[in-house]
């Protein structure tokens, strides 16, 4: 069966992962009883994550014709003879209104019915809640026939818990085996050392007995040692002699230290202590950060290209992370709603600075994510709400990798408001990975 990308905007993307079958129709009957049968409506609706009755009813509402979906037989019928291309166009409109997220365009959404009988689309990727236009005729049909609650997420969570429990039990069993092996090895070692000690004792027992004359000689030597008296000379001359010896030793050490310092380079001796950042990088004061931001703003206002900006910042003494933080402040300072679109629009400047970070040996993607987090912590509430859209947009543009995003998220503080907004996107990433592995 031929497949196509979900959503007209993704039609030419060869690597788009969300696909659905191409629509197949069949004209049935004659005269006033002529009908159009959408043969593979069940497969299409399954790919969209919506009941087939919704799409069938939408066709009827838009065409002003009666429509019916038979649950038992799985047949979708619309009165009248209609072209496949016309129905495919209506299906695209249905996808825009009732499937794709209004924020990020992802088709992995769920229809929610609020207490005030309003329809919303909750995105599993970015967590955005899209308000559906209630003037559409299909909305009343959805309110009367609400979608079934998905149980797959709970099942997946229980499966993940069981898998984690199984891994813990396996690790505990491995640890127990290691302990047993260590105990066996220590017992074996003790046994071998015991036998070697026994052999040594046996050798000592078998050593030839000492003669009486040898014992008498040893006793005489011990007596001679007892007769010797060891005393310290406490006279003034002896004390002065000892002091001179100690002073000569100290001066010798001082001379050695001075020669070592003379051999050291001047740069190492006169090296000034640096302030240390929390993550190990040198920290610049706040006024230096503002100065760097102003410098970048002047470069941008003069029409500098990303390459020129990179060349100009290469000579700056700030570390790569400070440059990235300053770039975000210069590019998006004062931005509220629409922050995600601005980031994608000006991604070339971010890529240029990431290239400079890679040349300096710094982790470029992690630096970009830290820059996003740092900016969103200081930015307005509207900009901070779009942090998931920003990261997803950069992920879709192949600027950020999935492994780096998850690693950055796991290293962060989960109580942070920025990470709380990113949590739905991280869960979506992990779910998508597990589903692709199952497929």
Automatic annotation (TrEMBL):
Catalyzes the hydrolysis of GTP bound to the 40S ribosomal initiation complex (40S.mRNA.Met-tRNA[F].eIF-2.GTP) with the subsequent joining of a 60S ribosomal subunit resulting in the release of eIF-2 and the guanine nucleotide. The subsequent joining of a 60S ribosomal subunit results in the formation of a functional 80S initiation complex (80S.mRNA.Met-tRNA[F]). Residues 143-245 are annotated as: Disordered. One of its GO terms (molecular function) is eukaryotic initiation factor eIF2 binding. Keywords: GTP-binding, Initiation factor, Nucleotide-binding, Protein biosynthesis. It holds the Pfam family W2. Residues 283-439 form the W2 domain. Residues 147-186, 234-245 have a biased composition (Basic and acidic residues). It comes from the Eukaryota. This is Armadillo-type fold. Belongs to the eIF-2-beta/eIF-5 family.
């Amino acid at each position: 069966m031929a497949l196509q990308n979900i959503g007209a905007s993704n039609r030419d993307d060869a690597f788009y992962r969300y696909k659905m079958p191409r629509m197949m129709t069949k004209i049935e009957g004659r005269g006033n009883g002529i009908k159009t049968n959408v043969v593979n409506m069940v497969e299409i609706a399954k790919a969209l994550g919506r009941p087939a009755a919704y799409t069938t009813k939408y066709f009827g509402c838009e065409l002003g014709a009666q429509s019916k979906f038979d649950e038992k037989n799985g047949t979708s019928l619309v009165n009248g003879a209609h072209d496949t291309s016309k129905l495919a166009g209506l299906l695209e409109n249905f996808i825009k209104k009732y499937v794709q997220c209004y924020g990020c365009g992802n088709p992995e959404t769920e229809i929610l019915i609020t207490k005030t009988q309003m329809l919303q689309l909750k995105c599993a990727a970015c967590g955005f809640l899209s308000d559906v236009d209630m003037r559409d005729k299909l909305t009343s049909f959805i309110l009367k026939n609400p979608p079934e609650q998905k149980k797959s997420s709970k099942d997946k969570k229980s499966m993940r818990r069981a898998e984690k429990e199984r891994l813990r039990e396996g690790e505990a069993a491995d640890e127990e085996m290691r302990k047993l092996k260590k105990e066996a090895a220590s017992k074996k070692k003790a046994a071998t050392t015991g036998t070697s000690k026994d052999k040594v004792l046996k050798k000592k027992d078998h050593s030839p007995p000492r003669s009486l004359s040898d014992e008498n000689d040893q006793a005489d030597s011990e007596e001679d040692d007892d007769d010797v008296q060891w005393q310290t000379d406490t006279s003034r001359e002896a004390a002065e002699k000892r002091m001179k010896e100690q002073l000569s030793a100290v001066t010798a050490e001082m001379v050695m230290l001075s020669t070592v310092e003379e051999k050291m380079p001047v740069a190492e001796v006169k090296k000034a202590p640096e302030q240390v950042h929390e993550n190990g990088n040198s920290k610049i004061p706040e006024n230096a950060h503002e100065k760097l931001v102003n410098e970048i703003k002047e470069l941008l206002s003069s029409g500098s290209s990303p390459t020129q900006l990179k060349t100009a910042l290469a000579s700056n003494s700030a570390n790569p992370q400070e440059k990235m933080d300053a770039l975000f402040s210069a590019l998006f300072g004062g931005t509220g709603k629409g922050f995600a679109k601005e980031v994608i629009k000006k991604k070339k400047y971010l890529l240029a600075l990431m290239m400079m970070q890679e040349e300096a040996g710094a982790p470029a993607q992690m630096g970009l994510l830290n820059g996003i987090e740092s900016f969103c912590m200081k930015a307005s509430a509207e900009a901070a709400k779009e942090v998931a859209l920003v990261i997803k947009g950069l992920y879709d543009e192949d600027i950020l990798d999935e492994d780096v995003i998850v690693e950055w998220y796991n290293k962060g503080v989960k109580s942070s408001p920025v990470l709380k907004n990113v949590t739905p996107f991280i869960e979506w990433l992990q779910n998508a990975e597990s589903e692709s592995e199952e497929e």
